[in-house]
């Protein structure tokens, strides 16, 4: 653990973890680091971590790219809605959602009512750079990734903005973002 993550002491993090009585859900665009930040948060809080995209892949026994190819985006969104509803069982855990999940009004209302919701945001250059590292996102194969990311980020912003906690993850170390998330949860609870 490096210095930034210990901005809150281990005892303070343990005290915060005891106050967390619901799932912690990360929402926001592809490439903001929801999964890696979520993993780090879960480790620090000693909570289980669930990647909703992986849960969808497991339920379908297909990769997300395969679901899009074989069944189309609407089928993926339907599976996403059902899997997230199942994950909102009140158990304490950290969940990273796929970038489109919180856009669905039903899913959004459910998450907002049952979880501590955090919108992770980043600037377009960061999103382009981070998403270029993997070729697993079908939406970004449909044209110029920068244009697609810019359009989706603009379209989705009003939905993401309903999350009570908003954190911009910059280019600095992820541990700094994690420390900020912990502090914001502490302030919000
Ligand atoms: C999507 C984001 C992806 C994945 C799917 C669609 C989106 O998840 O669910 O490719 O619509 O933004 P990540 O945000 O984890 O990349």
Structural write-up:
This protein has nine helices and five strands, in the order H-E-H-E-H-H-H-E-H-E-H-H-E-H. The protein is of the alpha/beta class. It has a five-stranded parallel β-sheet with strand order 2-3-1-4-5, with helices on both faces. It has a single domain (10-188), classed as 3-Layer(aba) Sandwich (Rossmann fold), CATH 3.40.50. Helix 2 (34-45) crosses helix 9 and helix 3 packs across helix 5. The radius of gyration is 16 Å and the shape is globular. Helices cover 54% and strands 11% of the residues. Shikimate-3-phosphate is lined by residues 30, 34, 53, 64, 98-100, 137-139. Residues 30, 34, 53, 64, 98-100, 137-139 line the site of shikimate-3-phosphate.
Give the structure's gist in a few sentences:
The protein is an alpha/beta fold and 189 residues long. Helices cover 54% and strands 11% of the residues. The protein is built from 9 helices and 5 strands.
CATH architecture verdict:
3-Layer(aba) Sandwich
Distance between the termini: 25 Å
Shape: globular
Bound molecules: shikimate-3-phosphate
The CATH class is Alpha Beta
Total helical segments: 9
Helix-strand sequence: HEHEHHHEHEHHEH
Mean pLDDT, nearest integer? 94
Largest sheet: 5 strands, parallel
Count the domains: 1
CATH topology term:
Rossmann fold
Strand order of the largest sheet: 2-3-1-4-5
Helix content: 40-55%
Q: Bin the strand percentage.
A: 5-15%
Tally of extended strands?
5
How is the topology of this model organized?
Elements: H1 10-19, E1 24-27, H2 34-45, E2 49-51, H3 52-60, H4 64-71, H5 73-87, E3 94-96, H6 105-114, E4 116-121, H7 124-131, H8 145-160, E5 165-168, H9 174-188
């Amino acid at each position: 653990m490096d210095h930034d993550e210990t901005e809150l002491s281990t005892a303070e993090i343990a005290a915060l973890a005891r106050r967390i009585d619901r799932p912690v859900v990360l929402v926001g665009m592809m490439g903001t680091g929801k999964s890696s930040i979520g993993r780090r948060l879960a480790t620090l809080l000693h909570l289980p971590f669930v990647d909703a995209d992986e849960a969808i892949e497991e339920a379908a026994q297909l990769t997300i790219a395969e679901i899009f190819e074989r069944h189309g985006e609407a089928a993926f969104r339907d599976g996403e809605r059902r899997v997230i509803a199942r994950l909102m069982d009140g158990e304490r855990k950290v969940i990273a959602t796929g970038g489109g999940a919180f856009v669905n009004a039903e899913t959004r209302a459910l998450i907002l009512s049952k979880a501590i919701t955090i919108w992770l945001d980043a600037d377009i250059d960061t999103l382009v750079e981070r998403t270029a590292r993997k070729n697993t996102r079908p939406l970004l194969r449909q044209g110029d990734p920068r244009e697609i990311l810019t359009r989706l980020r603009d379209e989705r912003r009003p939905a993401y903005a309903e999350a009570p906690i908003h954190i911009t993850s910059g280019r600095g170390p992820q541990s700094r973002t994690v420390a900020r998330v912990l502090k914001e949860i502490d302030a919000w609870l």
